[in-house]
Amino acid sequence: MDASLPLYNQIVYTRDELIADLAPETDPAGLTMVLGAYDMAASVHEHQRRADTTPYFWHITRVARILIRELRIFNAEVIAASLLHDVLEDSTVITADVIKYNFGSYVSYIVEVLTKNIRLTGEAGEQEDLEYIERLRRASIDCRIVKFAERLDNFRCMEFGVKRDPFRYIDETERYYFPMAASEKNNALRYLVEEMQKVKGKLFA
Known about the structure:
The protein is mainly α. It is built from eleven helices and no strands. The longest helix is centred in the N-terminal third of the chain and has 17 residues.
């Protein structure tokens, strides 16, 4: 590994980098939408930290970075939704209606599909997880692409201790998420699964 490069969990996709990557690929309205989502997410997640002590917002930006730089997805609605995918879970102020008003119905739809009641525990929490998986399975392909990109970023951060039980997280991903990709001939999902499998191979080599 190049010592001059930051560790993966230290990478943040800056606003300027986002503009440089996206401006040539989308229209001004689309870019404005994505930047609005970037700023809203930055505000909502401002004080959150991950288990590895890095700002939670860095994780959010890397999900968008995976979509843009690795998958070459430039759809403004999908990128905006990727930046907002945890906003409803982590804000007591922003609602689905607020997202719909600011970013449109499709962005709101993706974010709602990807939102889970993380405060439930025990049997209620397990039931919520199952309903979440089923909702994701029946949702649009864009929802699954964003979710798989988010999982890939978590896989890449596993070595830094972002998950309390990495074995369970990997098992859950393989058991519930990978079959969604196997049932569809989608190059983006296939790539994301292959990248997660590479990470797993390195972790257990």
